[in-house]
Write a structure and sequence with these properties.
By secondary structure, the chain is an alpha+beta fold. The protein contains 29 helices and 22 strands. The protein has 6 domains: 267 residues, Heat Shock Protein 90; 182 residues, Ribosomal Protein S5, domain 2 (2-Layer Sandwich); 114 residues; 57 residues; 59 residues; 151 residues, Heat Shock Protein 90 (2-Layer Sandwich), CATH 3.30.565. The chain has an 8-stranded mixed sheet, with helices on both faces. A 7-stranded mixed sheet has the order 11-10-9-12-15-13-14. Strand 10 and strand 11 form a beta hairpin.
């Protein structure tokens, strides 16, 4: 007799279909975002929250689910709606046009198990109540439990306040699956036996590990306050009428890697997890399709105690326009026959249309064929010298390529994983480069682009169960072969080292870039030399003008004292001359890098400021005296001044006009002579070819070819001379300030070069400090043990006592350093001004005494108190006081450092020389320093460290706010002082 028996389903089936199937965390997030897209959401976001423990939430504003839909769809694996391609009712599309479905198997929701051990699902449909369900995915890890025995709590409620009451009930219902009391003795017995057996199995594997059942109970017993997370869900806040939120607990380490101080993986693994998530999700929707209005807005947002940071999102400025701006572009489409029709641009030049036939016939059966699909690829030259991009643009493209490059695949506008990741080489790009990098050209790290397929045109290109790529079938292999052939042919024909296009275009580009770089270098050198010359030439005139201003002031003081209106009036000419001289003694924009000439320039600047102040005071005093003494009728004084000023301006303009006209005439003649000379060059080089043809010595074909080559070569040579000249003249005619532009460019370039060198230095310093700290602690323990082992007679010697004291002082210094670690290893605590003062006195006590420096604090500072990480506060004061000690130590008289407090502010002041006004804008920049052998790191780190806690630090410019005459630094606390 034949028996008919159904399959028995274990609960672990859910685990197999969900957490164990999904490729990785970014892919899981992508699947859940695609669910939001299918729900006609306009926006979806992953929020990651700092906390103990950290939590996360995926929230959207889609159509949501009613109670019946949640039970019949979300809690049913492999729903028929996805398999049959059922349409979403128009009233649920929220005004959007119909979207092609992204989900295929109805199991995408199970991806959430890969993100966290438990999830609170909340959903709301327009004009319906909220629906809530709590799932602990670890219930499905027990291989002894039958699926039908697991019961998930689902509840419906109307008010947000109801959730606080319902949440404990949901948690209790989850724990009930471990030891049920629902009146069903068979189910209760099966579950108790299943969890007993599973507990025994886990203990036998590792007795130290908490069993799964204990973990489920522990999580349920934690205090769950989900108001913080739900506040970021637009439905909960009332901004949207419908949507779904998944609040996750006990997170995957790939998510806790974003939370400071959390996660158990090493820091390099955390960085790898972050990079993978950013690279995968940054291109979630097709950035190169500018024809689609219905684009899902997506974000990954990390929330800390002080800020929220968007780490992934759609980025403006990196769409199809960005791709078209690159050195090389390949754009077009394959038709159903596998023929490619498109256009090619190489080195910015449009090469024209291209048509390529496939290397083999395409599959034609309904189960194997591929349909039409489009593509666009942009690539850049790795070396700036070979690129058409400006150096600063090229640098930004190279930087972007570190995290966003690669050739991705998009189905109906959303990304198909894992194509485009560095580790994926579906089109064998890197494999071909290993054999001949120059010829094959294409490289994942220097190209951006996508292949666009659709479910309608390519139904045979289906995802694997784990969404880790397309199923390996005839259709996927066919598209792979087409793309490989296209990339090989275009590389060898247009872009690679052996291509005729590269050989033709690259030399001119490199020559132009070399010429531009050389010209910029020469211009910068000339500008620096010119600046030095101007300062030197005007230095003597400045001394004369300063002396003259003082002499004129003395005459004016005498005239005012005796009340002589005529004497005052007669000095008007001298005052006007000084005003004109002040204007003429200004210097052009200062180059960023002056080297040893910096001191000469600063001396000139200070003397100029003194002279300008004298002249301003002189003009003000003369105007007041002339008016008070009625030297002339007011209208006559005004007319005279207007006339004098008009004459001064007219004279100066006339002078500039004459000088410019002289330069232009000279330049016009020089250009004319050079053009005449260059015009003869072609005839000189090709005249002999005519004679060769006439004498039948040179074939006509050869002669014409050489003539054309000579023309092209001369065109190139002359364009390198006249085109830049023409552009410069045109920019001058449009009012460009070349001095200012060149000064900025030179300063920017110098800064970047210097920072590149010093970043490596700083990194090495950090590594050295870390190693040194560890080694010194180890050596101290060895030294202490060795000293302790010495005979009692030796330990009584004064030399031994001195050595022991030095060792203890060294240890004390190391203890101070330990408080200067990055925040995260310590906890926030109440810090008072007196704590800071004691800390500084202990740290700098011997040095302050040795230098004769007084460090004191006001009562307001000593009494101030606030909550913060010690590691965010103490290093800042160490840096500020250390700098103050350096600058006041050069004084010969009183040396003072003051700690004071204002309204929610702390201040460190000294009576040193203060900060040069010209240095203030650069004061907190990395590597900026005026100290001898200074690294320029301290103040930069002060600002960054304080900013991490929401605090600010500024240099006080307002004299009225300064406590002492020198440098004054003010720290503004985010939350003010503690009461």
């Amino acid at each position: 007799m034949v028996s008919a028996i159904a399959f028995q389903t274990r609960a672990r089936t859910i685990d197999h279909l969900g957490r164990e199937q999904i490729a990785d965390v970014p892919t899981a997030i992508s699947e859940l975002w695609k669910n939001a897209y299918d729900a006609y959401a306009r926006q979806v976001a992953l929020h990651i929250y700092e906390g103990l423990p950290p939590t996360a939430m995926i929230a959207d504003d889609g159509h949501g689910m009613s109670m019946s839909q949640f039970i019949e769809s979300w809690l049913v694996v492999g729903t028929e709606s996805k398999a049959a391609g059922a349409l979403v009712a128009e009233n649920l599309r929220q005004g959007l046009s119909e979207r092609p479905k992204q989900g295929q198997k109805g199991i995408g929701r199970l991806s959430v198990a890969a993100l966290g051990s438990a999830v609170l699902v909340l959903s709301k449909q327009r004009n319906n109540n909220f629906v809530a369900c709590l799932v602990d995915w670890r219930l499905f890890e027990n291989p002894y439990v039958f699926l039908q025995d697991i019961r998930l709590p689902v509840v419906e409620f109307s008010s947000r306040e109801d959730l606080k009451v319902l949440l404990p009930q949901l948690r209790a219902s989850i724990v009930e699956n471990l030891s049920p009391e629902d009146g069903n003795p068979d189910r209760a017995e099966r579950l108790r036996d299943a969890w007993r057996r599973f507990d025994e199995h886990e203990v036998s594997q590792d007795a130290r590990t908490l069993t799964t059942s204990t973990q489920i109970k522990t999580l349920a017993e934690l205090t769950w306050d989900v108001e913080l997370q739900l506040g970021d869900w637009p439905v909960w806040s009332g901004a949207c009428p419908a949507g779904t939120a998944l609040v996750m607990f006990d997170l995957n380490s790939a998510l806790t890697a974003w939370v400071p101080g959390q996660g158990t993986v090493p820091s390099d693994a955390q960085q790898s997890s972050r990079a993978s998530l950013v690279r995968t999700l940054s291109g979630f929707s097709d950035p190169y399709d500018d024809q689609v209005d219905d684009v899902l807005d997506y974000k990954v947002i990390v929330h800390t105690a002080t800020e929220k940071n968007v780490v992934v999102g759609r980025e403006a400025g990196y769409g199809i326009g960005f791709l078209h701006s690159l050195d090389h572009v390949l754009e077009g489409a394959f038709d159903e026959e596998g023929i490619f029709h498109g256009r090619v641009k190489a080195f910015g030049k449009d090469i024209g249309k291209v048509e390529l036939t496939p290397p083999q016939l395409q599959p034609t059966s309904s189960k194997d064929r591929i349909g039409a699909f489009s593509l666009v690829i942009g690539a850049f030259e790795p070396v700036a010298r070979s690129s058409i991009l400006r150096p600063e643009i090229h640098a930004s493209v190279v930087e972007r390529a570190q995290t966003h490059s690669g050739l991705s695949i998009y189905r109906d506008g959303l990304r198909v994983m894992p194509y485009g990741r560095p580790e994926n080489d579906f089109f064998k790009i890197e494999e071909r480069r290993q054999s001949q990098a120059g010829r094959e050209f294409w490289a994942n790290r220097r190209l951006f682009g996508r292949i666009a397929i659709s479910r309608a045109a390519n139904p045979n290109l289906r995802d694997k169960a784990g969404r880790e790529g397309l199923i390996d079938n005839t259709a996927s292999r066919a598209i792979q072969i087409l793309m490989i052939e296209l990339l090989k042919v275009t590389a060898r024909r247009y872009f690679g080292g052996d291509s005729p296009v590269r050989k033709e275009l690259l030399p001119a580009i490199e020559a132009e870039n070399d010429a531009a770089a050389e010209a910029a270098k020469k211009t910068q050198s000339r500008q620096l030399a010119g600046f030095r010359q101007i300062v030197r030439e005007q230095s003597a005139r400045l001394d004369v003008a300063l002396a003259k201003s003082k002499a004129t002031r003395a005459k004016l003081d005498v005239a005012v004292d005796i009340g002589s209106a005529n004497a005052v009036w007669n000095l008007n000419g001298e005052v006007d001359e000084l005003v004109s001289e002040r204007a003429s003694l200004r210097v052009p924009p200062k180059p960023k890098k002056l080297g040893k000439f910096e001191d000469v320039y600063r001396d000139y600047r200070d003397r100029y400021a003194e002279m300008a102040a004298h002249v301003d005071g002189l003009r003000e005093l003369w105007t007041e005296a002339a008016s008070r003494l009625n030297a002339k009728p007011a209208i006559d004084v005004a007319r005279s001044q207007l006339s004098r000023n008009q004459k001064a301006i007219t004279d100066q303009l006339g002078k500039w006009r004459r000088e410019i006209e002289t330069l232009l005439r000279s330049e016009f003649k020089r250009i004319g002579d050079k053009v005449d000379e260059d015009a003869k060059e072609y005839y000189k080089e090709t005249a002999s070819l005519l004679k060769g043809v006439e004498a039948a010595v040179t074939p006509l074909r050869v002669a014409i070819e050489e003539m054309d080559q000579t023309r092209e070569r001369l065109f190139l040579r002359f364009s390198e001379v006249y085109e830049p000249y023409h552009r410069a003249m045109k920019q001058l005619s449009e009012g460009l300030d070349l001095d200012g532009a060149l000064a900025y460019a030179a300063a920017h370039g110098d800064t970047l070069e210097r920072r590149l060198e010093q970043v490596q230095s700083l990194a090495q310093v950090g590594i050295s400090v870390e190693i040194l700290s560890h080694e010194l602690h180890t050596l101290d323990r060895r030294l202490a043990a060795s000293l302790e082992a010495l005979p009692e007679s030796v330990r009584g010697l004064s030399a031994f006592q001195t050595a022991e004291a030095a060792r203890k002082e060294l240890v004390e210094r190391l203890r101070f350093l330990s408080q200067m670690q990055i925040a995260g290893g310590d906890t926030r605590e109440k810090i008072s001004g007196i704590d800071i003062e004691i800390y500084l006195v202990e740290f700098f006590g011997p040095l302050l005494s040795e230098q004769g420096i007084t460090l004191r604090a006001t009562d307001a500072f000593s009494n101030a108190a606030f909550f913060e990480f010690p590691s965010r506060i103490f290093p800042v004061f160490i840096n500020l006081v250390n700098n103050a000690i350096y600058w006041v130590s050069e004084l010969t008289g009183s040396k003072e450092i003051l700690l004071s407090a204002g309204h929610d502010t702390l201040m460190v002041s000294d009576n040193g020389r203060g900060i040069d006004p010209e240095d203030i804008p650069s004061l907190f920049e990395l590597f900026f320093s005026r100290r001898t052998r200074g690294r320029g790191v301290g103040l930069y780190l002060c600002r960054q460290t304080l900013a991490a806690g929401g605090h600010k630090i500024d240099y006080v410019v307002d004299q009225a706010k300064k406590e002492l005459s020198g440098a004054n630094f003010e720290i503004t606390l985010r939350s003010g002082f503690d009461a």
